[in-house]
Sequence to fold (245 residues):
Amino acid sequence: MKLRLLSLYPDQMNIYADRGNIIFFEQRCRWRGIDFEVTRCGTGDTFDPAGFDLIYMGGGQDRDQQIVASDLVETKRESLVRAKEDGAVVLAVCGGYQLLGISYQLADDVIEGLGLVDLKTVREPGPRLIGPVVITVNLDGTDRTIAGFENHGGRTYLGPEAKPFGKVESGHGNNGNDGFEGVREDNLVGTYLHGPLLPKNSWLADHLIKLALEHHHGGTIELDPLDDRFEDAAHETARRVALAG
Fold:
């Protein structure tokens, strides 16, 4: 089997070591004997939406995010819409998450987003939303916890057509008010959780790998189990830190 990952703007959108998520995807595939291929896609580049099973975009500084936003709309929106509709997995973190929506406010400017999901990110009075986070999610009929770290000045509000990725147990989440974190639609996940996210939540990485492989190969795929003692310990430590406040 083979998993084909598209990395969007790996140079600009890599704050807080978000590219560690790609390394984690790759290692878990390699341990299982699954071929893993990464294609970098930067400013001005286009891509074939049928050529990838998992599309990843991390977070970046405001300046870089503004540059990326314009390029996303001009050169990649059509392909991203087609890939999402075809069932490819999309994982977007922090700045990448914000750009999935309808618009993103940066200072006094409102920047057009991809419009893949019904959400807007605005600026409101108050401090940045920073710190450890624990959320509860239900992706396959079972409640599971995800632990991570958030650091964002924007407040994201989901529209009536959007569903949150999870419910905040500790931390701020999308806006610090409504108790929701991230967004989820079909095989798309957007989240503010940095860190990188996946090494502390190995089960989520496997869930996305499974969906991506099924997109590529069809049918139902069961992944071989791995020894996750270190990953589980990392998750438990991050969870305890967040819940301790």
